[in-house]
Amino acid sequence: MEHDITIKQVTTGKAKPDYNHLSFGKYFTDHMFVMDYNEEDGWFDARITPYEPLLMDPSSLMFHYGQSVFEGLKAYTSQKGGIQLFRPEKNFNRMNISSDRMNIPEVDPDFLVDALKQLLHIDRDWIPVEERQSLYIRPFIIATEPALSVKPASQYKLMIILSPVGSYYAQSDQMSPVSIYVEDEYVRSVKGLVGFTKTAGNYAASLKVQQKAEDLGYDQVLWLDAIEKKYIEEVGSMNIFFKINGEIITPALNGSILDGITRDSVIELLRYWGWNVHERRISIDEVKQAHTDGVLEEVFGTGTAAVISPVGRLKWKDEELVINDNQTGPVSYDLYDTITGIQTGATDDILGWTVPLQEQET
Amino acid sequence: MEHDITIKQVTTGKAKPDYNHLSFGKYFTDHMFVMDYNEEDGWFDARITPYEPLLMDPSSLMFHYGQSVFEGLKAYTSQKGGIQLFRPEKNFNRMNISSDRMNIPEVDPDFLVDALKQLLHIDRDWIPVEERQSLYIRPFIIATEPALSVKPASQYKLMIILSPVGSYYAQSDQMSPVSIYVEDEYVRSVKGLVGFTKTAGNYAASLKVQQKAEDLGYDQVLWLDAIEKKYIEEVGSMNIFFKINGEIITPALNGSILDGITRDSVIELLRYWGWNVHERRISIDEVKQAHTDGVLEEVFGTGTAAVISPVGRLKWKDEELVINDNQTGPVSYDLYDTITGIQTGATDDILGWTVPLQEQET
At what positions is N6-(pyridoxal phosphate)lysine found (chains A, B) (predicted)? Predict the structure, then answer.
C-alpha cells in the first residue's frame, strides 16, 4: 500500500491548554490524520487536515452496530533531544488483529507509522516536555456506511487524533496504589467473543461495573473469567501482574483478554532482569491463599495510559486483601521507572523499543 | 418529563425511492427526531428537523467506547385506514432497560411514543401502503461527549430516523425457509455481559460469524451458549422457536439473549391459540435427538425485521438436519399471517397490540 498524504495546515494554531492541569484525552492538537475506505478504492485520500468535526449520516453503521477498532500509544519528548515513540509498530499490528475479528479491512502498519510521524512533525509544538507528560495518540477506525442492515460496512474512516496528557490518574503521584474491587456478577468478555480486540463495545459494556466499583469506594474493577468466575482476566482496562513468593505471574493470553503492549514490555523487561515470569491461569483463590500465606508481595496493572499501576487493596467478597502494606512495591517501582525512563530518554533503550521521529523526516 | 417539540420542516421533500425495490434501511424520510442530553439540563431541545448529517467531534465517546442503545419497530398503513404502530411502548421500555445496563440516562417512554407519532404524522406520505412494506423506525442514543477517558458520557444524542422497507429478506416470498449454521467456536454473549441489550457492540461482534456462515453456504448463524457450547441462544439477530412433538419450546430469557418483542408476541399468540409454550433451556443435542426421532416439526426465528423466519436446514458439525422437508410449517405460517395481519389491519387485533396514529393528533 502506497499513499500520498495531502496536507492542509491551519493558518493559526489553537491556544494550548494549561499543561499543568491536563485531563486525559480532553484537549486535541491542531491537526489530525484521516483516510477513507470504500470497496472500489480500498483505503484512499490519506490526508492531514485541521482537527475538525466530522459530518456523519445518522444511519452510519458505527452508530447502530459499533463496528470499530482503536489503538492508544504515546509520543514523548526525549531528554536526549527530539521526539520518540514507544513500539508504535506493535499498536498498528494489533489494530489489524482487532480489525480482522471485527471484519474491518487491514491497513499497512508501516504506512501508518509514517503517517503518524508526519502528523507529529506538524503538531510537534504540542508535545509536552515535562516529566510524566506526553502526547497521547489515538488511531481509530469506524464504519461510516449509511445503512441499517447488520453487515460489515463497505465504507470506513480511519483517523489519528492527538491529545497532550499528564498522568492518567487524578493524583499527581502516578505510583500511589489503587484499590480494586473484584467483580463476580458482571463479566468483561469470554472466549469466542471480542475481548482480545480493542473495539468500542468492550468498553461500553464495562462502564456499569466501573461505576459499581466506584460506588463501593474502589478505584477499579478486577474482572474474572465468565465461565467459572474464578480466573483473573484484567483490571479495569489494564493487564494485571502478581508477584508471589519471588516469582511473577500474569494471566495467559486466552482470547478474552487484551494482548497489552505494556504487558509485553513488562514481561520482556522482567525476563531481561532475570525474573521468572509465568503466563498462565491464576485464580482469585490462589491470590487469596498467597495473601494468607504472606507471599503476595506485589500486584500491579499495566497499560499505555498508566504504564504501571500498583494495586494496594483488593476487595473480594467480604474480604479486603491489603498488599505490601498498601505501598508501591520495588518491582512496580523499578518497572515504572525503567519503562517511563526508556520512553522519555532518561534511561538507555536497552531493549530497542523506541522509535525516533527524526529518521523519517530525511 | 415534559418537553415541547420544536418542528422545522423541509420546504421540498426528497424524491422517494422505488417502493418495489426497497433495500432494508437504505432510504430515509425527510425528517428525524432529535433530543440532546447534558448533566445540567437532562434531556433537552426535543426537535423534529430535516434529515441531515450530524456534526460529531472525532473524540466523541461513541466512536471510541461504543456507549449506545437502539431499538427497531415499524409503522404500517392499516387496511382499515390510517397508520398504526405495533406495541411501541414495549420498544421504548426496552430501550430504558438497555440504557440502564449501558449507563445511559433513561427517557420517558410515553414522551417518545408521542414524539414518534408527531414525526410519523409529518412524514406520513413516506409510509408504504403495499402489503409486506412498512416504515422501519430506528430510535437510538449515542454518547457524544468529546473525551477519551473510559467513563459514562455526560452528553448524549437521541434520534429517531425512519426508513421505508420491503421484506427484510432479499427474496420476495418472506416465508421461504432459511438455512442455519450452528456456530460452536465464536459466541454472541454470555451471562453478565450485555447480550440482553440492544447495544451496538453486540452486533459488531457477530459480523465475523455471519460472514463465516455465508461462506459455508448458510443464511444465518445459530448461537450456542458461551459456557457449555450446548444450549441454544438466538439465531442471527432473532429469537428462535422449536416445535417438537406438538409443543413449542424457546430459550428462556437468561441474561444473554434479547427479550424480543416479536418473541413475546409469538408466545402470547400461541398460548391464546392453546399451544403449550415452554421457555426453558434447550440444547442442540435435544434438537438433534428430536430430529432423529422424527418429532422436530418446525423451527422458526422471530424478529421485528422478518417477523417470522422459518428454518429449513440446520447445519451442526458434520450433519445437516432438514426440517419439515425444508418447507414452511403451518405454525410458522399461521403466526406470520396473523401477526402481519394484525400489524396491517387485515386481521382483528385480538390481543390489543396496535396503536393508531390518529388518537394522538387530536
Answer: 198
Q: 10 Å Cβ neighbour count for B21? A: 7
Is A189 in Cβ contact with B193 (below 8 Å)? yes
Helices in chain B by DSSP H: which ranges? 61-65, 88-101, 109-122, 200-204, 207-215, 261-272, 284-292, 330-343
A6-166, CATH topology level:
D-amino Acid Aminotransferase; Chain A, domain 1 (3.30.470)
- Answer yes or no: are the C-beta atoms of B286 and B242 closer than 8 Å: no
CB contact under 8 A, B142 and A208: no
User: In chain A, where does DSSP find H-type helix?
Assistant: 61-65, 88-101, 109-122, 200-204, 207-215, 261-272, 284-292, 330-344
- Using CA coordinates, name the residue in chain A closest to B201: A201
What's the CATH code, domain A178-344?
Answer: 3.20.10.10
Q: Which residue of B lies nearest to A193 if distances are taken between CA atoms?
A: B187
Give the DSSP letter of residue A83: E
Q: How many CB atoms lie within 10 A of CB A242?
A: 22
Q: Which of A25, A62, A211 sits opposite B63 (nearest CB)?
A: A62
| Contact assignment for A63 to B67 by CB distance below 8 Å | no
Chain B, 176-235: which have a CB under 8 Å from a chain A CB?
Answer: 185-194, 199-208, 210-211, 226-227
Give the distance, in angstroms, between the CA of residue B157 and the centroid of all CA atoms in the same chain. 20
Cell numbers describing residue B35: 433530543
CA B332 centroid distance within chain: 18
DSSP per-residue string spanning A198-237: --HHHHHTTHHHHHHHHHTT-SEEEEE-TTTS-BEEEETT
Interchain pair B200, A200: CB under 8 A: yes
First-to-last alpha carbon distance for chain A, in angstroms, is: 21
pLDDT tens readout for residues A79-137: 999 999 999 999 999 999 999 999 999 999 999 999 999 999 999 999 999 888 999 99
Residue of B nearest to A160 (CA): B58
Asked if A56 reaches chain B (Cβ–Cβ under 8 Å), the answer is yes
Is the pLDDT assigned to residue B157 strictly greater than 90?
yes
Put simply, whether A15 touches B (Cβ < 8 Å) is: no
CATH of B178-343, one of 3.20.20.70, 3.30.300.30, 1.10.10.10, 3.20.10.10: 3.20.10.10
Taking contacts as CB-CB distances below 8 angstroms, the residues of chain B near A28 are 58-59
Give the separation between CA B339 and CA B347, rounded to whole angstroms.
8
The closest CB to that of B62, out of A28, A58, A63, belongs to A63
What interface predicted TM-score (ipTM) does this complex get? 0.96
φ, ψ of residue B49 in degrees (nearest 5): -130, 170
The residue to which cell 478486577 is assigned: A222
Q: What is the pLDDT of residues A177-189, one digit of tens each?
A: 999 999 999 999 9
Where are chain A's structural domains?
Answer: 6-166, 178-344
